[in-house]
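Data availability (excerpt). The following record was deposited with the supplementary files.
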Amino acid sequence: MNAETFYPIGTPGTPWGDAERAAWRSLQRRQRSYADDVVTRIERLRSRFDVETYGELDYPPDRYPLRALRSRQPRDERPLVLVTGGVHGYETSGVHGALHFLAQHADSYAGRIDLLVVPCVSPWAYERVHRWNPHTVDPNRAFRDPSPAEEAAALMRLLAPVRERVLVHIDLHETTDTDETEFRPALAARDGKAHDPDLIPDGFYLVGDSDNPQLAFQSAVIAAVARVTHIAPPDEKGQIIGAPIVAPGVILYPMRSLGLCAGVTAARYTTTTEVYPDSPRVTPEQCNVAQATAVGAAIDFALANAGR
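Predicted structure:
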């Protein structure tokens, strides 16, 4: 896709209206099952965690229960760690990395932290391997009040009672080749703008909060993940996806002003992970392990430094 190639829906230079959004929606097909892939795995964890339905998405003819898992017997004096995945439904290891962490690693933190894990914020998009919800809204630009995305609004309602208590929030994402071949061109077409091609970074990286960088925290997560998969180098401009690197494998975004999920709480330690699943150097399982490793490293750093 280059600057002279136009997205097949809409008129170049003109933002989409209802007809274009309907045309886009008609092209989306279910490719996998949220119930089979995610809900079933959550149910297997019910013996170890409290499972709650914090909302439901009604996208006729489909309805999707929104599920969260919590530590049993939580205590207010413990640090609260929030893990979110699948805000962008197509980013597979965000969903399965969160579930991998719960299944394989969460027990080692029992009694030291309380966990709140939302493995799949956007199940409609998970099934259709897409970034947007059916209204062509990106949930990861919708964490503001009022929110234009029910996925984001439901999560904000869940978090409202504990927002100030969260110490760590790690939001699990991927950067994929389809970001450049499909999702960024679609975004440009939706908004009536030209698509400016960019490079997809080859490797794992983190997005921290420019208003609260916490670079020692970010670097500790990068160091842990580097033992699992390769870290994305900067491009010739010293950037990753158009943002300057501030530490190896780390860039910064203004999370709250952009409406990003990782800015939704008052947590001291926040980051967005970005796994690169299309590299020939990784497997899907490595991607899941990288996400779970990032969660563990984030918790370890926060526990070691929370009193400082």
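Summary of structural features: The radius of gyration is 19 Å.
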